[in-house]
Amino acid sequence: MSAAGAVESGAVEQWETLLPGLRRKIGPDVRRGPWFQYHDVAGFEWNTFETRIAHLPVELEGFRIVQLSDLHCMPHWQTAYDELIDRLKVDPPDLLVLTGDITDQIRTPSRCLPTARRLINQLHAHRGVIGIFGNHDFFVKPAAYADTPLRLIDGKRILISARGKTLEVIAPPGPRREDYIRGFENTLPEKQPGVPRIILSHYPDHIRRMKGLEPDLFLSGHTHGGQACLPGGIAILRHDSLPLNLLAGAHRLHGSWFFVSRGFGFSTLPFRLFCPAEVVEVRLMS
Which helix (DSSP H) or strand (DSSP E) does residue 206 occupy? Predict the structure, then answer.
C-alpha cells in the first residue's frame, strides 16, 4: 500500500502503550522498514507517537509534529523523497521540524544543496517548516535556504501561534556540539503555563545541559540509531555520550518526552542494516 493509500484507507487506529502517557501507533497500516537499505531509503518507517502533555490547552489537542532528521541529502535524488512528499501533501502535519544534517558532504555542500532545496521546497505543514543545522551542515550558510519554506532557528527561541494558542520552540546554538554556549539555557525565560515547550537539538546528549528548561518535548537525531546494527536494532556505534538504550526511539527522561530519530539518510556508509530510516510523528494530547 502506498503512503497516500495508508492515510486514506480509513482503518481504525490501533495503539500500543509504551509508557504511562506514551503510545505508539501499530496495526496493519503501519509499515515496518526493511532490514537492509542501500543508496535509497525506500521502505522507510513512519512512526507515530501520542504523548500526554501536562496543562496542554484543549485547542492544541491532537496537534501533529512531524520530525525529519539527518536527511544527508546527496547530489542524486532518492525515490523515497517522492513518497515522503506525496504523504505530506495528502496529510500535512501542523508543524514540520528538521533536526540537522540536511546535507551530507561536509566540505562540498554545494553539490548536495540542489537536492536539499528541491526536497524542502516540496514539504508541507500548516504552521510551517522550522529546523536547525547539524555537524554536516557546518559549511552551509543559512542564506542557502532563504527562499525555501525552511526557517532556521539555531540558537533561538521562537513562538508559534496555532489554533489561537502558542507553542514555544527552542534550539541551542550549532551546528557543532562544541558550539553550545555555556549558560545558554540561563538566557531563556521561565516556562509559561499552558505553552508547550519544545526543544530541537541535533545532539541527544544536549538534554543534560537543557533539562532545567523543563521541555515537554526534546527532539533530536545525529545517532542514526547506529545505522549499521546487529539484529534487533542493537547499535554498534553510538556517536553520542548517552547510554546505548537511548540512541533511538521514544523515552521519558528528566521529566521530558525524549525522542531520538534514527534519521532518514545515510552517512559514511551508503547502507542501513537492521536500522531502517524513519519519520517521527508526535501527537500532543492532554
Answer: none
> Cα dist. 103→13, 107, 116, 136, 266 in Å?
35, 10, 7, 6, 10
Domain residues for the domain of 263 are: 38-285
How far apart CA 60 and CA 24 sit, in angstroms, is 19
Which CATH number covers residue 155? 3.60.21.10
Number of domains present in the structure of the chain: 1
In angstroms, the CA 242 to CA 238 distance is 8
Give this prediction's pTM: 0.94
- 10-residue stretch averages of pLDDT, the chain, 286 residues long: 47 92 95 96 97 97 98 97 98 98 97 98 98 98 97 98 98 96 95 97 97 98 95 85 91 97 94 97 97
Has residue 223 been placed in a domain?
yes
Asked if residue 5 is part of any domain, the answer here is no
